[in-house]
From TrEMBL:
InterPro entries: ABC-2_transporter_component, ABC2_TM, ABC2_TM_bact-type. This is ABC-2 type transporter. It comes from Chitinophaga pinensis (strain ATCC 43595 / DSM 2588 / LMG 13176 / NBRC 15968 / NCIMB 11800 / UQM 2034). One of its GO terms (cellular component) is plasma membrane. Belongs to the ABC-2 integral membrane protein family. Residues 128-370 form the ABC transmembrane type-2 domain.
Length: 371
């Protein structure tokens, strides 16, 4: 234990001696946690809509007014011909065109039906899909209002289904409640993964690894001496992130903080073991940095933070489930938003434990201590 204590003392002195490293470890993740949840928002609002009105009736004016008052659409132009509206799309000044044909009101009153045409700029598929869906919903609601005016006394038909719904765990649909826990996991992953990957290889570059190799320090002691300091730093970063989420975004975990920290403790062992494994295979810091960047980018994109794992093809789901980040993001959302207990996250905990044992065992085995 004395040997391990001396190694830990050496590592902590090296970390705090590097004044440029401390802001990267503590300040940079907190700045990113302040900025990223404000930008990483998949809600589609302020959709630019060009209206082509060939009817100019009372009903068309009411319909356009209802669309404009919804809060999702901004009317960028009101035209009588389709060509200038299409030019607005081509110039990226409009996202969707709503074309109202001639005799719209007459067809609606006399024949009890009328049609409109919607054209969406599908370069941004998400915005086009959601924007068209919002517009369809508003038009359906407008249609129901007209029918209620025409048939105020008519009871609902036998086939009418009244649907009510409620939002569990996030009643106000606050997107930050969903994103902040996941972003915090990614920031801890980036800091721990990159710094651990550069650790052993740094000793190789400056030549101190040769001095360690001729000492009686065992391989497992050396790996633990490299792992524990950054494990502590990961815990501190996570704590700062939780405090920031509490006082800036008002996010208070519904579940047990002790459970979160227990899962984090195992996750950090797995993550740092992965970083140290990269470091044992690398010959210089540049090589280690690019290898770590390659894997961490895969972890980020396939973690389920931006795209649900359930929507991925089977081969991508398999890769996503083989990354420890995916399971930690899932657990963070379950504990913070749902108040899940250990029984609910038991499988994810076992996955992380397996990752930790395999990756650290591999790193210890691969570190070749030569005199």
């Amino acid at each position: 234990m004395r040997t391990l204590r001396l190694l830990l003392e050496k590592e902590f002195r090296q970390i705090f001696r590097d004044k440029g490293l401390l802001p990267i470890i503590f300040v940079m993740p907190m700045m990113q946690l302040l900025i990223m949840p404000l930008a990483a928002n998949f809600e589609v609002k302020n959709i630019n809509l060009a209206v082509v009105d060939r009817d100019h009736s009372t009903y068309t004016q009411q319909m356009v007014a209802k669309i404009a008052s919804s809060g999702y659409f901004h009317i960028t132009g009101y035209y009588t011909d389709y060509t200038p509206a299409r030019q607005q799309i081509e110039r990226e000044k409009a996202d969707i065109i709503l074309e109202i044909p001639p005799h719209f009101e007459v067809d609606l009153v006399k024949e009890n039906k009328a049609s409109v045409y919607i054209a969406a700029d599908a370069i941004n598929g998400t915005k086009a899909g959601l924007g068209s869906a919002y517009l369809n919903t508003i038009l359906t609601d407008f249609n129901n209002e007209i029918r209620m005016k025409w048939l105020p006394e008519a009871p609902p038909g036998p086939g009418t289904i009244d649907v009510t719904f409620s939002n569990w765990f996030n009643p106000n649909m606050n997107y930050r409640l969903y994103m902040v826990p996941g972003i915090l996991v990614l920031l801890v992953t980036m800091v721990g993964g990159f710094i651990a990957a550069l650790n052993i290889v740094k000793e190789k570059e400056i030549g101190t690894i040769e001095q360690i190799n001729v000492t009686p320090v065992k391989k497992w002691q050396f790996i633990l001496g490299k792992l524990i300091p950054f494990w502590v730093i990961g815990m501190v970063d996570f704590t700062l992130g939780l405090l920031l989420a509490r006082f800036v975004y008002g996010i208070i975990p519904l579940g047990s903080l002790l459970l979160l920290y227990a899962f984090l403790a195992v996750y950090l062992v797995a993550l740092l073991g992965f970083g140290l494994l990269i470091s044992t295979y690398s010959d210089n810091q540049l090589q280690a940095m690019f290898v770590a960047f390659f894997f961490i980018m895969i972890f980020m994109l396939m973690s389920g933070l931006f795209v649900s794992v359930d929507n991925m093809p089977p081969w991508a789901k398999m890769i996503a489930n083989l990354t420890p980040v995916t399971h930690f993001i899932d657990v963070m959302r379950m504990v913070v938003l749902k108040g899940s207990r250990f029984a609910d996250i038991k499988m994810q905990f076992l996955y992380e434990l397996a990752f930790a044992l395999v990756l650290n065992g591999w790193a210890i085995w691969n570190y070749r201590k030569t005199a």
